[in-house]
């Protein structure tokens, strides 16, 4: 398949030999030939994705946040918005429900402030489980001040 594409590129080059070097067809053909190795990577590397959807989705979130940030009234409000956006996106990338994560963090601000690494989206559930087990020994489990978020 790669060889067929290369032959087609040569044929286009020969056909565009009469075209002015500044024509769109001529410039596109030269650009494609100049980036042949990068353009055909997916043919040589089986793990290379055929599309760029992962990056596109990540950029859409940043672009949407940039558009919404036009309405922050203060610099501090913009900083809070940036932190929230970062936490929400990190929770999604960690395959956690962003709402459950933020509820757990907001219900335990002192614990998160004292040990921030235990409040990260990828390990906050383990922190909640250990906290719940400690509280169950000292109180009845119905008196726990927050619900234990369960995944699923």
What would your notes on this structure say?
The protein has 152 residues and is mainly α. The longest helix has 19 residues, at 75-93. The chain starts with a helix and ends in a 14-residue tail after the last helix. It contains nine helices and no strands.
Number of strands: 0
> What share of residues is helical?
55-70%
Principal-axes shape call: elongated
Give the strand content.
under 5%
Query: What gap, in angstroms, lies between the N and C termini?
Result: 44 Å
Largest sheet: none
Spans where pLDDT lies below 50 across 5 or more residues = 139-150
Please state the average pLDDT score: 77
Order of helices and strands: HHHHHHHHH
> In angstroms, what is the radius of gyration?
27 Å
The number of distinct helices, counting runs of at least 4 residues, comes to 9
Secondary-structure-based class equals: mainly alpha
Features:
152 residues; mainly alpha; 9 helices
Would you kindly provide a brief summary of this structure?
This protein is an all-alpha fold and 152 residues long. It is 65% helix and 0% strand.
Write the layout of secondary structure elements.
Layout (H helix, E strand, L loop, with lengths): L1 H14 L8 H11 L1 H4 L1 H4 L8 H16 L6 H19 L4 H10 L1 H6 L9 H15 L14
């Amino acid at each position: 398949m790669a060889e067929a594409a290369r032959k087609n590129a040569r044929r286009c080059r020969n056909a565009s030999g009469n075209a002015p070097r500044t024509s769109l067809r001529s410039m596109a053909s030269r650009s494609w030939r100049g980036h042949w190795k990068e353009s055909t990577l997916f043919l040589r590397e089986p793990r290379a994705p055929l599309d760029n959807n992962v990056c596109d989705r990540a950029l859409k979130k940043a672009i949407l946040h940039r558009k919404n940030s036009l309405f922050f009234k203060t610099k501090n409000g913009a900083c809070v918005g940036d932190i929230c956006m970062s936490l929400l996106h990190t929770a999604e990338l960690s395959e956690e429900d962003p709402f459950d994560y933020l509820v757990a963090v907001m219900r335990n601000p002192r614990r998160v402030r004292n040990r921030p690494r235990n409040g990260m989206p990828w390990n906050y559930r383990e922190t909640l489980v250990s906290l719940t087990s400690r509280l169950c020994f000292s109180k009845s489990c119905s008196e726990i001040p927050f619900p234990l978020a369960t995944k699923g």
